Amino acid sequence: MVRLYDYPASANCFKVRMLLAQLGVPYERVPVDIFAGESQTADYLARNPAGRTPLLETDDGDAIPESGAILLYLAEGSAFLPDDRVDRAHVHAWMFFEQNLLEPNVGTARFWRLTGRDAERPEAFARHFEAGAGALAALDRGLQGKEFLVGGRYTVADCALYAYTRVAHEIGYDMDAYPAVAAWLERVAATPDAIDDLAPYPESARAGAGGASVHNQPTSEA
Ligand SMILES: N[C@@H](CCC(=O)N[C@@H](CS)C(=O)NCC(=O)O)C(=O)O
Predict the structure, then answer these.
(1) Most buried residue, 29, 90, 101, 132, by most Cβ within 10 Å?
(2) Are 146 and 179 in contact (CB under 8 A)?
(3) Which domains does the chain have, with CATH numbers?
(4) Pocket, ligand 1, Cβ cutoff 6 A
(5) How far is the CA of 53 from the centre of ligand 1 (A)?
(6) Ligand 1 atom closest to Cα of residue 215
């Protein structure tokens, strides 16, 4: 059985839980308390040098870090990853976009806002928030006239982009400004076996709680 090293409040981990549910793959869920340093132990760093969740341990003991890599590994051979080379390239393009523009901005802004870190660095927060709005606008343009991101059907690209987009409203993004995104969010939520189990950040994640994590904090802002 595969094993998922998981932080329940992480939308990066949520992506993987969602795809595992949609593929019907049974797995062992191993909670990692990133604010208690559990992702920074020598053992964990040997399996993921970046010290982050999610991390997937395969049946034969390989350890795969990075949510996008895990999604692509799991989706291989399934209907969630197109065979067509060009469609596949578009899936990859959206997943790179997610990691390059959406997650580092919407994800960071969300983490800072929900844990009180926005007040510590208001200017950096505003930059992330604004860049996140730009990413949502780009996603909206990309979804215009489309049911799903690639090939007219739900793929791992939708799964990857759904995770942070669906919670953007929690920190004040006006989703009415992105009508194609809003309609797509509903379509993704209605796909078979979609889940809704993102946990709230616990007290230990709050600014000043003493956690050692650099979770969602780009080094350029450190
Ligand atoms: N690019 C990575 C980002 C992973 C990431 O930022 N994980 C956070 C939780 S959302 C984490 O485990 N942080 C622990 C730390 O930074 O110490 C991915 O997509 O998996």
Answers:
(1) 132
(2) no
(3) 2-78+198-205 (3.40.30.10), 85-189 (1.20.1050.10)
(4) 7, 10, 12, 34, 39, 51-54, 66-68, 99, 213-216
(5) 5
(6) 16
- Going residue by residue through the chain (222 aa), what tens digit of pLDDT does each one get? 999 999 999 999 999 999 999 999 999 999 999 999 999 999 999 999 999 999 999 999 999 999 999 999 999 999 999 999 999 999 999 999 999 999 999 999 999 999 999 999 999 999 999 999 999 999 999 999 999 999 999 999 999 999 999 999 999 999 999 999 999 999 999 999 999 999 999 999 999 987 655 544 543 443
* Ligand 1 atom nearest residue 54's Cα: 20
Please choose, from the candidates 153, 30, 133, 137, the residue with its C-alpha nearest in 3D space to the C-alpha of residue 82.
153
In this predicted model, what pLDDT tens digit does every residue of 178-190 receive, in sequence order?
A: 999 999 999 999 9
Q: Both tokens of residue 67?
A: 């949510």
Query: How many angstroms separate the CA atoms of 83 and 72, rounded?
Result: 12
Model-wide pTM > 0.85: yes
Smallest CA-to-CA distance from 106 within 12, 177, 195 is with 12
Query: Any long-range contacts for 72-80 (C-beta under 8 Å, 24+ apart)?
Result: 72/156, 74/16, 74/19, 74/20, 74/23, 74/25, 75/19, 75/23, 75/155, 75/156, 78/23, 79/153, 80/19, 80/22, 80/23, 80/154, 80/155, 80/156, 80/159
* Element of type H or E holding 156: helix 156-165
Kindly give the distance from the C-alpha atom of residue 215 to the centroid of ligand 1, in angstroms, as a whole number. 6
